[in-house]
Amino acid sequence: MSDWKQELNRWLAYPALDVSLKRELETLLSDEEANAEALEESFFKDLEFGTGGLRGVLGVGSNKLNIYTIRKATQGIADYIKCELKKEDAAVAIGYDSRINSRLFAEETACVLIANGIRTYLYDTLYPVPGLVYALRHYGCEMGIMITASHNPSKYNGYKVYNAAGHQATDTESEKILSYMEQVDIFDGALHIPFAEAQKSELFSYIGDATKSLYLDCVMDEAIFWTESKEEISAAMQNLRVVYTPLNGSGAKPVKEIMRRLAIGEVHTVKEQEEPDGKFPTCPYPNPESREAMLLGSALFEEKGADILIGTDPDCDRMGIAVRTEDGGCRLLTGNETGLLMFDYIIRNRLKAGTMPAHPVAVRTIVSSRLTDRISAANGVDLKITLTGFKYIGEFIEQLRAQGRESDYIFGYEESYGYLTGTYVRDKDGVNAALMVCCLAAEAKANGETLDRSLERIYRTYGYARNDLMNFTFEGIGGMKEMDAIMNKFRTTRPDAIAGKRTERVIDYKYDDTGLPKSNVVEYILEDGSGFSIRPSGTEPKLKVYTYAAGNTMQEADAAAEALQEALRELI
Description:
Structural class: alpha/beta
């Protein structure tokens, strides 16, 4: 009998197995031959805990996300806190979003922590990731846990882990936490009490409106305006028309509250996507990067004659926008384009107001737009480059704090729609990003231009460039092997030329000395300065390819980008 079948039988024999999970297992076993692959997928390994925590498909089995894998992970966290951090009055903050079972998993997490004698703060309702990060720092917690699968389809959920600094657990911390999790038996290893009992414990507290209000105060403190005249600001905000979609996630209340505080004249919410709903009935892939997810918002944008469309993902750490074009149309911007608009706006208006630090610092990830480098150099901003993943930006902010330079940080972003203008949290913040784009949209409208034209001005000033993301999906047990084979191909069989452009340099972030932590990323730089980076996703069964190309005009940049992508499709 194979190991996965032994694990399956163990689950089947467990006398206290959750009723819904037992029913699911019995359904799969009712036609074992037809469901053989699904059964193996569920039991052939433990759900992996990586640098982003846990993320997996909901369901029965050791490789799925369910109350038992949640309890196992949380017991590992509790053991890590007790054995490594060795703090008697340790505390953990817990948040959750709108996904299926998110509240249940958050409560299960609290039950295990309380049973282990660890003080626990649980959000009293769903709330964005940055709100959880703010709360853990506000309460002085050793760790934070967010139940979310971010922008993945509805069949997923996840378990993000944050450290005391407020950014996601470092690679070293994650490895140590994993070592404790691996020692926990999935059924009998976790201490656990019923939630009703946990609520009565003196170690348990809800995170309520007071903390939420403090978080939103910090977001509002990040507002940067283009004029000192309150009358001009008020008039511009009153004249602004915004369409917003929370994509059935946790962003509706905090984002709309920020817009209320800004006194925006018209805010129209996409009704079908306003209420929390983990099934995401109108957007199977609830990601503001997805054109499909933003279709209803785009339609309402046209109907209302709006100036800007804002969308946030279910845990509201990512934000995407669409803008009015010069010919009156609706244009969805990429994460890089929005990042360039924000960065340019922050620099211009901080210099104008005299609030720029003497030694300003900004951060981008290795796959984000290289135009950021040109903007930084032209304006005296020290630009730091990190690996992909906002936790590395969060780590860098913490390093600045340790050096007494926290106030030097002015902006950080990654191409995957993540932005942060302040240091009150250590993760990307969709609420903060929504605030900033409302400010820059109001400035543009007050100056009689669209954000589309504002972006064109940036390109004219710093150069025309195009960045794109190509996704290749590899599901199932064999998917990882396929991705590994492709990564190995690009590492070892290096083409002399791609799309007619000579390969000038190849950087392997896993094996080369780059000055950054080791990461499974390979970057190709071609003779004309164009190139691409390729890596497996850390959160989805996808291979991600980030391309970049430049030109003397946008038409030239577009042509170069399309030729490169066509060549890469053939190679992959």
